[in-house]
Amino acid sequence: MPKLRALVHASQLFTGAGIRRKDGRKIQEADLGLIEDGALVYSVKKVGSKEIPHRVEWVGATSGLPKKYSRVSKKDLKKQKVVTAGFVDCHTHLVFAGDRSEEFALRSAGATYEEIAKKGGGIATTVRATREATSAQLEKLAEVRLKEAYAWGIRTVEIKSGYGLSTESEIKILEVVQKLIKKHPEMTIVPTFLGAHAYPKDQSREAYLNDLLERMLPEVARRKLATSCDVFIDDGYYTRDEGKRILTKAKELGLAVRVHADEMGDTDSAALAAELGALSADHLLKVSEKGIQKLAQSQTVSVLLPGTAFYLKAAHAPARKLIQSGACVALSTDFNPGTCMTQSLPAIMTLGALYLGMSRAEILAAVTYNAAKALGLSGSKGSLEPGKDADFTILNAQRFEEIYYRFAWQPS
C-alpha cells in the first residue's frame, strides 16, 4: 500500500481534464475542470533522502472525499490557496555563465540585437564565459536558478545547451544538466541539445556544421545526454536547409526535434517543424499564414515567448491567429542571459494576457498541459487526474488569475 497524502479545502483546484480531452486546442473555461473547495489525494515516493509526490490517486470536492482516505495525512489550505497542475517551463537556457547587463543597457539606448552580435557580443559573450567556466561553477549557478524556478511554481523545466558551440563545451553543459536531474528529483528536468544555436567565431561554418552532424549529435545520442535536438533557424543563424539536415540526422539517431522558428524573419521554419513532426516550434514572431496553418494541422506545439519580444521591443507573435486556427499554444520564459533574463512564468502570463490577448483558460492551458505536450510529456503531466504524476503547484492566491494580475509577484 503506497503512502498517501492529501490536500483539502483548496479555494480553487483545476484538474485540467478538459484541456487534455481537447488536446490543448481552443480551450474554454469549461475545460479547466475547476473545483471550488477542492481536494487532491496523492501517493508519495522516496528518492534518496527526499520524499516527493508520486501519483494522483483521487481528485474532487473536499466534501466528497472518500471515507477510505479519512485517515490520510492532510494539508488544509483553508480556502486560501489555489492548486493547479505544476507549471511547465518548456523553453529555457538555464545553464550558462557570465553577465550581459551592459548589452541590455546598450539595447535600451537604441542598439539592436543584430548590431551587438556583429561587434562580438550577443550569444558570443555568453559562449566565452560558459567555455571558461568549470562544470562545478556551471552547476552551482544552475542550482540557484532551479531553486528560483521551483519558487515560481515550476515543476517541469526544459534546459537547452547552446552556449558552448564546441563539442567539448556542449557536452560539458549537458553533463551538468544530467547532474541536476539526479540531484533534483522534486523537479522533472528535460535536456535539449542546441549545439545549432549559432556559429562559433573560431571555426568555419562548414567545419562546425560537420562537427554537429558527425561528432556532437552521435555522442549526445549515444550517451543519452539529451532527449531532443533544437536548431535556431533564422536570419543570420541557420538556414532552413541546414536546419533540416541537422534535425533529420537527430531523428535518425532517435532524438525528438524542436525548432527556434521564425523569430527574426519568416524563414518557413514553422512549416518545416510541422512537416518534420517536431515537438515544438518556438518564438513565431514572424510566422507566415502558411506556417500557422501547418502548425494548426499538426501535433507540433506553438511555444510563444512574449518575454523575449517584450525584452527586444519587438512585435509579439500572432497568438490569437494561432489559437483560432486550432494550434496548440504554450507559453514559456525563454530564460536566457541576452533576450529574456527572467524565470518568472507568472510575469510571462501577464504578458500573455496583455499583449497576446489570451484568456485565463488559454493561459492556464499554455503553462500546464500544452507546455507538457511541447516536451512530449502530456501523457503524465499537465493535468491533475488519477494515474498521472502528482506534479502540482500550490499558489498563494485565492483565484488563479491573481498570480498574473499582480505583475512579477512570487505566488508560491
Structure overview:
The protein has 412 residues and is α/β, with parallel strands linked by helices. The chain has 2 domains: 4-86 and 386-405, Urease, subunit C, domain 1 (Roll), CATH 2.30.40.10; 87-374, Metal-dependent hydrolases (TIM Barrel, Alpha-Beta Barrel), CATH 3.20.20.140. Helix content is 37%, strand content 22%. It has helices at 17-21, 101-108, 113-118, 123-132, 135-151, 167-183, 205-222, 240-252, 269-275, 289-296, 306-312, 319-325, 345-355, 360-367, 369-374, 402-405; strands spanning 4-14, 34-47, 50-61, 73-76, 82-85, 87-89, 154-160, 188-196, 228-233, 256-261, 280-283, 301-304, 329-331, 392-395. The chain has an 8-stranded parallel beta sheet. Strands 1, 2, 3, 4, 5 and 14 form a 6-stranded mixed beta sheet that branches. Helix 7 (205-222) links the parallel strand 8 (188-196) and strand 9. Helix 6 packs parallel to helix 7 (205-222) and helix 10 (289-296) packs across helix 12 (319-325).
